[in-house]
Structures are given as C-alpha cells and as structure tokens.
Write the structure tokens for this entry.
Amino acid sequence: MKLRKKKILLSILALFLLYIIWLSFNLLTFKTYRAPALKPSPLEIQGVFHIHTTFSDGRKSLDEIAKIASQADLDFIIITDHGNPNRESYSSQGWKEGILALAGSELSVNRGHLAALDFELPSRSFSQNAEDAFYEIKAGGGFTIISHPYSKIQWSWGKFLEYEGIEIINGDTALKKNIVASIPSLPALLIKPEYTLLKMLDSPHRNLRKWDELNSLHPTYGYFSLDAHLLYQPAFNLLRLHLLLQTPLSEDFDKAKHQVYEALRKGRFYNSIHAAAQAYGFRFSAKEEGGKTVPMGSTVMPDSAVTLQIEAPFPFAKDIHLVHNGKTIFSSDEESVSYEAGHPGTYRVEIYLSERSPLGKKIPWIVSNPIFLRKDEK
C-alpha cells in the first residue's frame, strides 16, 4: 500500500515537473515580434478603446489608468463607463499624464450594449430603446459601436440601422470565455501576463461574418476592444487601434479630440494584437486610374479598376489575406502587395502571424478597415 502511494506521488511529481518545464520553455521562448527599423510617424498614433474606470465597474481611477497608459507608450485612451450617459466620466476628459483621455459611454439598451462616442451631453438620459438611442446620439453629433455582439449581453439585431461600428474582438469576453481552457497558462499572469492573454484569445470568425454582412448594407468599421475592468497594464499591451491622421496630434485638447474621432468616423484606422507583434507601419489604400490615392475607410466609385495597395513592412513571417465581401481572394507573404480590383464590393485585409507565437493560427494579428468599391448609380 505504501509502495502504491509512493508511485502515485512520484507520478504526480513527475507530471508537475513536466508542466513546469513546458511552461518555462514557452515563457522563455515567448516574445513580441518587433520591427526596429521602422521609424515612428507623427501621423500614426496608437490607443485603446473600451475601458471601464471607477466611474462604473472598473478597478482603477481614470488618473491611475492614464498613468499606466503613459508607461505603455499609448497616445490616447477611450473610456466607456456604463451609463445613459455616464456624466461623471464625460466631464473627466482631458490630457492626463501626456495621454489624450476621451470618454464616451456604454449604454444598456434593449438590444444589448451600445458604445456612444463624441456626442453632446444631453439634458436627459438616452433612451433604453436601441433604435431611439441611436437617433438621439446621432442628433447630438455622436456615433455608435455595437459592443460584444455575440457574448455576455448579446446583441439582438432586429431592424437594420446604420450603426457606425462593431466590436470584432472583445478582450473581456476572451478572458471570461476561455479562462477554464487557459488554466495551464494562468501562472504566467504573474510573470508574462501578455502570454496568458494571447492564449485566451480565440477566432473572431462569427463577428467577422456579421461585420461583412453589415458592410454589404452600409459602411461599418471594426474595432478591437479591450472592455478592460482590471489588468490594465497587460490589456494595454494586448489590443490596439492604430489611427492614421492627416496632421500630427494637436496639443490642444479639443483639436486632438476632433482628430481622433474624425479618424474613427471615417474608418482611417486598423486593429492589431500588439502583444503578438508590433504592427506599426501597416497601410491599406486604393489608387484610382487618375493617380488619386485614398486610405482605408473610403468609398470609391471608379470608372475602371482600381489598384489596392497593401504595405506590411515587417521582417517576421506573416500571411496577408485580401478579403472581398467576406471571402479571401488573394494571399501573400510579401511586404508590399498590389492587387487590381475590378469588381464592386467591400475589400479589407487580415494578416496572420506565421512565426511561433501563443496567438492561435486562426486569429488575425492585423485587421484593417475596409475600402468600399461601389457602382456609380448616376
């Protein structure tokens, strides 16, 4: 009996030792891929979207979060505390710790949760009816993004409205949905938390399909969303928005706010999983026959074919997918790609990391916003 217990104990000890070796190997070999040769441009800024503070159900104050964001080399953060709207967070906007801190609100409406940004503060609460809230926000100069459409409090679609955005990846959803499957990686939260968070992400294929469906009806822009309530430091290194500005970010708050929201409204941004690899320098544009170049987010009504240009100047292995109306029509591993687009529709780019990484192979590392080729109805 004692011998049997000893064998069981030794087997458990051996398994534990193998686990320690496995985890140590993965942590020692994990790295965020970088492109050190690329020089920063003042026309590309990085930030994060969908953060909760102590103004609602977050664990840290806005000032504390801004300090963490400054250490992560972010340019802006967008907080979306719960409320209809959250007036306290709205009044807290400003430059904090060198970070542009903007505030919208995550509204609880009858169809789910709806993020509202860049609106004039209303005299009364927004409606809890999704359609009515949409029109109220629009009347107040704002725009809307559907939050976590297929997770937590799911979105019920109903009548089509021209919501301006939809979340493609939601960090909080990944954390809660995959925490059991990620138990073997959880100890890494104390050492390399980004490793654990990458392991928790799964393919956003359902969100991408819905996004493509919405884009067939009306231009809609996709967001990688943190939905962060805690673990702010690793979250800020997980998912990022890259905004392409027309002029460097102003030091004046109101002007800088307008620059960020204008880029979001026009879809002049792309999304990246920053913890897997730095994505700075990616570009997706269209060149018309006359030589005019337009950025992602644009709608083009060409008389003839246009040339789509993809720039992915990264020294590590990647797989570029050009997606047309939801289907991959072209792939490449080159750093610069041109493609002649002769058919109307929605074109966007997904890039997958081919290097060894805890990021799943079916999860896009970069997702661009679309370029829309439309027929001229005149």
Remarks:
- The chain has two domains: 42-274, 276-378.
- The radius of gyration is 22 Å.
- The mean pLDDT is 94.
- The longest strand covers residues 99-109.
